[in-house]
Amino acid sequence: MRYAKSPVKPEANLKDFNDSYKLGKVDDIAYAYKGKRGLDEKLIREISAMKGEPEWMLLRRLEAYKVYLSKPIPKWGGDMEPIHFEDIYYYLKPADTEKKSWNDVPKAVKETFEKIGVPQAEKEMLAGVKGQYDSEVVYGSIKKTLSAKGVLFLSMDEALKLYPEIVKKYFGTIVPMGDNKLAALNTAVWSGGSFVYVPAGVDVELPLQAYFRINSESAGQFERTLIIAEEGAKVHYIEGCSAPAFSSASLHAAVVEVIVKKKARVQYTTVQNWYKNVYNLVTKRAWVEEKGEMRWVDGNLGSALTMKYPSCILAGEGAKGEMLSIAWAGKGQHQDTGAKMIHLAPNTTSQIISKSISKNGGRATYRGMVQMNKGAVGARSKVVCDALILDELSRSDTYPINKIFEEDVILEHEAVVSRVSEEQLLYLMSRGLPEHEAEAMVVNGFLEPVLKEVPMEYAVEMNRLVGLEMEGSVG
Amino acid sequence: MLKINNLKVNIEDKEILKGVDLSIKNGEVVALMGPNGSGKSSLASTIIGNPNYKVVGGKIDFEGEDLLSMTPDERANKGIYLAFQYPAAIPGVTVREMLLSALRIKNREIIVSALELKKTVEMEAEKLHLESELLNRGLNEGFSGGEKKKMEILQMRVLKPKLLILDEVDSGLDIDALATIAKNVAEMVKENKMSVLVITHYQRILNYLSPDSVAVMKDGVIVEVGGKEIVERLEKTGYKQEE
User: Fold this and answer.
1) Quick check: A422 contacting B, CB < 8 Å?
2) Per the CB < 8 Å rule, is B72 touching A3?
3) Chain B contacts of A449, Cβ < 8 Å?
């Protein structure tokens, strides 16, 4: 900008980003199965056979594969052209099976987990941890006191083996295979992901945490997560994502289904920091019953393209849905994110707070929907989407849709697009802050309403990532 | 400490300062008076390095260094502080957070404790009769005019500059607030030998903050420098009579 003494490079290149991306190195791990590139029915049968699945799941996969083939690639959002679906590895199985003890985890995997802070985090803060490499979960643990109360925290594959009746009851009920092309693909080739079951009245006081890592070039990661909170149960699930720096694109197409029963409360926090060539196309949805509460907290910092609109179906009277999101779009990135709140019952409430920042030619899109069906008497919703654009090269768009079929409802919508003003920068610089720190301070202040809702260590991490991004762009 | 020589400044090719000469000594309070649009505030903006003010001639020397080659943050860290007439709001950032960053940059080698700073800020707020609730809000976000001015003084008290520039601090303030601000400034002059450039259209603040010298600006140049008697004369005759 105008204050720097030396000319400022308008864009940070990917190489610079890589220097600050501490998780960019490939881990040297062995694979038990690395199938061919591309997808066909034979591969789906192989995956299912290797996992020793019940037949209904194989049939579900095959049916979903047909749905996947029948649906066109969505054109309404980001550019999916660079994804070469035929070059993707759809199933990559690390040689090591899931370890329950940290000591048994292979060294290379351990080192990466240590960089992301898994073992420390586990010791201090968490009720349970899962770590997934490519297609399979390689590490998992849960505190004994919780398993004694009947809390289940398993990989989905494990859950399908041990609790097939629960999986069968809920799998695909919230996100059906026909929902969208990527959800169909996930249903066909899913592997890994978390299964969380919290019995009635149990409060899992500490968060459960999962780490997802794509470790192979052109890998597809298709985890499937199912969370069930029975009546009055409470749980907070956190996921973090990373990937090495590859030249060709990887694909992450997850499906997350959450069932929030009467008076239950679920928070689902995501810190997405994929490398900038990952296509992150994720379907997340929650079903919320009477007086239940669902809160999505979503930080999207990495990836080439993210298309993600976590949703709440507010099905029971007084159900509450909330979405707090931050999107950072830097060079070559498009964050197409938002939320959907569907009010089916009376006195349901929802809130969407979306904050996006675009810089160095990045593009941030808010795409959201609030629907209030006939009968949702007394429903209320508030949508706030603020966009901060840091330079002339960058872009922000807002596409809010409201579908209101009930008269007695309240809907508020605020959208503000702003730039970091010269007055703000000059003001902070006149107090002694160098330009990039002044800018980072304005940005962090902008994000503060969301960051204060995120657990402390995540807020610190997000602050740090934002700081790195800001620094990388000042010459 | 501050020497301005034949300073010429343009905004968008329009000349607004046409050869300003002005000196301020250590611990000196200098009043810069003049009618609206005479260039007083432009001088303040130029001193702190606002990039909209293009220096086309002359120089500014601050403690023997060339000020004009420095960025605004470098000038601030040399000890120059402007209490803005219209300070910008920084949503989501409290005054403590901002001051902590500023202090840590200013004193790289000294560890600044957040807790100590919190105490200091609370104490200064009390002295300025500033509602403590404002300390937890975004800086200047939804503040009244008077609250903003007091917050400018609070930051100054914490950052302890060598040269304070007060830009029309008296506009829109009641007498009590003005007296409080002047008292807090005068203390810094006495205790820290801080120099002050008081930019004002009116005489009011000078009743509380007595200047060592008075300069009068008109149409982009300093037309008169003298003692307090100038203030008294302007009080009676106004600027128009000077023409």
Assistant:
1) yes
2) yes
3) 92
Inform me whether the C-beta atom of residue A5 falls under 8 Å from chain B C-beta atoms: yes
Provide the 10 A C-beta neighbour count for residue B211.
22
Distance CA A120, CA B129 (A): 46
Counting one residue from A and one from B, how many pairs have CB atoms under 8 Å apart?
Answer: 87
The residue in chain A having the minimum alpha-carbon distance to the alpha carbon of residue B47 is A430
Segments making up each domain of chain B, as ranges:
2-242
Q: Do A432 and B159 touch (CB under 8 A)?
A: yes
Highest mean pLDDT pick, A107-116, A181-190, A208-217, B163-172: A181-190
Confidence (pTM): 0.80
Kindly indicate whether the domain formed by B2-242 is annotated with CATH number 3.30.70.1050: no
A421, A431, A460: best to mutate for the B interface, most B CBs within 10 A: A431
Nearest to A373 by CA among A401, A408, A338, A399: A408
- CB A399, CB A367: distance < 8 Å: yes
Core vs surface per residue A410-446: b (16+ CB within 10 A) or e: eeeeeeeeeebeeebbbbbbbbbbbbbbbbbbbbbbb
Query: In the beta sheet, which residues pair with residue A322?
Result: A295, A351
Name the residue type at position B202: Y
Q: Is B101 within 8 Å of chain A by CB?
A: yes
CA-angle at A309, arms to A306 and A312, nearest 5°:
155
Reported as a single tens digit per residue, the pLDDT across B2-19 is: 999 999 999 998 999 999
Query: A181-189 vs A41-51: helix axis angle to the nearest 10?
Result: 50
Q: Which of A91, A278, A281 is nearest to A188 (CA)?
A: A91
Structure tokens at A251: 């694909």
- For the stretch A264-307, pLDDT in tens is 999 999 888 888 888 999 999 999 999 999 999 998 988 899 99
Tell me the C-alpha distance between A177 and B112, whole Å.
56
CA distance A308 to A173: 19
Long-range CB contacts (within 8 A, 24+) of A54-61: A54/A160, A54/A164, A56/A168, A57/A160, A60/A171, A60/A172, A60/A177, A60/A187, A61/A187, A61/A188, A61/A189, A61/A190
Spatial distance between the Cα atoms of A134 and A223, rounded to a whole number of angstroms = 9
- In this prediction the ipTM stands at 0.96
Distance of CA A23 to the CA centre of its chain: 18
**Distance in angstroms (rounded) separating the CA atoms of residues A428 and B10:** 24
Check B93 against A421: CB less than 8 A apart: no
Cross-chain Cβ contact B73/A446 below 8 Å: no
